[in-house]
Amino acid sequence: MPIGTKKLGVLAIAGVEPYQEKPGEEYMNADQLGHFRTILDAWRNQLREEVDRTLNHMQDEAANFPDPVDRAAQEEEFSLELRARDRERKLIKKIEKTLQKIEEDDFGFCDSCGIEIGIRRLEARPTADQCIDCKTLAEIKEKQMAG
């Protein structure tokens, strides 16, 4: 199942059902960490498969068209694919950084203020490294600097 697809009305990332918190459960316990590790591993594997598919597609489809318009169209298609793969490559690095945080037992807490990011936010964005308040503040500052 592709990343972020709806499954029975619930958003499932990388085909993994959302974590069901238990009453009184400790935040970022072994079950929760395992859940997010599963999501991140599956997501990274999906992205790597896309990279392989693109590579195979470009090798199979590469042709030296005599018509300049055909050649330009193919180059544009390849350029768009490579741009998408570059974004995915950066996302893979972010996923690997997040997996490292899980290994170091530093996952699920805001890099800026240290509070819990929250299970629901991490379900929506497993690579989040800031709580919603700090992220909102950072985005406001970014907009002010840009304009």
From TrEMBL:
<feature type="domain" description="DnaK suppressor protein DksA N-terminal">
    <location>
        <begin position="32"/>
        <end position="102"/>
    </location>
</feature>
<feature type="binding site">
    <location>
        <position position="113"/>
    </location>
    <ligand>
        <name>Zn(2+)</name>
    </ligand>
</feature>
<keyword id="KW-0963">Cytoplasm</keyword>
<keyword id="KW-0175">Coiled coil</keyword>
<dbReference type="InterPro" id="IPR037187">
    <property type="entry name" value="DnaK_N"/>
</dbReference>
<feature type="binding site">
    <location>
        <position position="131"/>
    </location>
    <ligand>
        <name>Zn(2+)</name>
    </ligand>
</feature>
<comment type="subunit">
    <text>Interacts directly with the RNA polymerase.</text>
</comment>
<protein>
    <recommendedName>
        <fullName>RNA polymerase-binding transcription factor DksA</fullName>
    </recommendedName>
</protein>
<keyword id="KW-0479">Metal-binding</keyword>
<dbReference type="InterPro" id="IPR020458">
    <property type="entry name" value="Znf_DskA_TraR_CS"/>
</dbReference>
<feature type="binding site">
    <location>
        <position position="134"/>
    </location>
    <ligand>
        <name>Zn(2+)</name>
    </ligand>
</feature>
<dbReference type="Pfam" id="PF21157">
    <property type="entry name" value="DksA_N"/>
</dbReference>
<dbReference type="InterPro" id="IPR048489">
    <property type="entry name" value="DksA_N"/>
</dbReference>
<comment type="function">
    <text>Transcription factor that acts by binding directly to the RNA polymerase (RNAP). Required for negative regulation of rRNA expression and positive regulation of several amino acid biosynthesis promoters. Also required for regulation of fis expression.</text>
</comment>
<feature type="binding site">
    <location>
        <position position="110"/>
    </location>
    <ligand>
        <name>Zn(2+)</name>
    </ligand>
</feature>
<dbReference type="GO" id="GO:0010468">
    <property type="term" value="P:regulation of gene expression"/>
</dbReference>
<feature type="domain" description="Zinc finger DksA/TraR C4-type">
    <location>
        <begin position="106"/>
        <end position="138"/>
    </location>
</feature>
<dbReference type="GO" id="GO:0005737">
    <property type="term" value="C:cytoplasm"/>
</dbReference>
<keyword id="KW-0863">Zinc-finger</keyword>
<keyword id="KW-0862">Zinc</keyword>
<dbReference type="InterPro" id="IPR000962">
    <property type="entry name" value="Znf_DskA_TraR"/>
</dbReference>
<comment type="similarity">
    <text>Belongs to the DksA family.</text>
</comment>
<dbReference type="Pfam" id="PF01258">
    <property type="entry name" value="zf-dskA_traR"/>
</dbReference>
<feature type="zinc finger region" description="dksA C4-type">
    <location>
        <begin position="110"/>
        <end position="134"/>
    </location>
</feature>
<dbReference type="InterPro" id="IPR012784">
    <property type="entry name" value="DksA_RNA_pol-bd"/>
</dbReference>
<feature type="coiled-coil region">
    <location>
        <begin position="44"/>
        <end position="105"/>
    </location>
</feature>
<dbReference type="GO" id="GO:0008270">
    <property type="term" value="F:zinc ion binding"/>
</dbReference>
